[in-house]
């Protein structure tokens, strides 16, 4: 049925329940689900039980619920469809940024970036990034690089949606727009807003239509991303992003 067809209210409510979970809110009680979604508690309880039966939720510790294993397979299908992981095969490892630094591959999903891969030397500085992590795109290097390919009004809409789902300090949208405009002209972005003391150098990866598929970055302690090393990292990241973009466009793996 087309866009003007009939909607099913119970399905919409189930979607709201699933969307109530975030990287910072991994487990919710029925009361918390009801509060975050505005759905009556008895209805929220019934939806949670039904979603558990489908594997979309599961009972966590205590009396809470968390996202279920069925979502892993569904999410994997979406990731596979973009071809980003296949197109980036071998690219992260070839960057070889050096000890203390690591490379990250992120996919842009709405206003979020989802980390798909990471690589680094035998010595790594502790970082928040991990494969599977979903983070607000406007806070990360990969995310900012990808957002730089979008019009400012679309960036603002995506950031507002993320902030509505993830309460916190909303960014200065005007300052973000200026930062992304500079990144769009330069072809890369330098960001230190995801983790204190850590800096990332990231470049956008366009999909075959020119829209942002995601980004690739080299990140680590700020004092390791300076001087001549910064110039080398920047050039390597920009080249790597272009390589992955070409692979996406041609469907090639090498």
Q: What tags apply to this protein structure?
A:
Beta-Lactamase; 2 domains; single chain; Arc Repressor Mutant, subunit A; alpha+beta; two-stranded antiparallel sheet; 254 residues; 10 helices
Please list the strands of the largest sheet in the order they lie side by side.
Answer: 5-4-3-8-7-6
Mean pLDDT across the residues is 86
State the shape. Answer: elongated
Radius of gyration: 20 Å
State the share of residues found in helices, binned by percent. Answer: 40-55%
- In N-to-C order, the SSE pattern is HHHEEHHHEEEHHHEEEH
What's the number of domains? 2
Largest sheet: 6 strands, antiparallel
CATH architectural category of the largest domain = 2-Layer Sandwich
Q: Tell me the number of strands.
A: 8
* Assembly level: single chain
CATH C-level category of the largest domain: Alpha Beta
Would you mind describing this structure in some detail?
This protein has 254 residues and is of the alpha+beta class. It folds into 2 domains: 9-68, Arc Repressor Mutant, subunit A, CATH 1.10.10.10; 76-250, 2-Layer Sandwich (Beta-Lactamase). The chain contains 10 helices and 8 strands. The longest helix is centred in the last third of the chain and has 24 residues, at 227-250. It is elongated and about 60 Å long.
